[in-house]
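Lab notes, practical 5.
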Amino acid sequence: TENNREEQQAYYNRIFYLALIVFPLLSVWTYTELSALESGEIYSASFWYPVVLLYESLGFWPAALLFPLLGIFVIGSLCKKRAALKMGK
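Output from the prediction step:
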């Protein structure tokens, strides 16, 4: 129904704009913390487990790029869903 589509559009719009804020913040935070850890400015830091796993197994750049790449995927998927809803699919 039309009401349901409007609710879905509103929902995906909220998630989209939230993702536009959250992923860049997480990316910058992760990069700065990993950089400080690498340079010896700090001796320990708390990270989300997948970041730790990537850092320990593959190094700095894969761990630092986790959130930017995840953000691109999520935001791209949300753009596709929003466009489909706008077209009435």
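Observations recorded by the TA: The chain has a mean pLDDT of 94. The longest helix spans residues 2-39.
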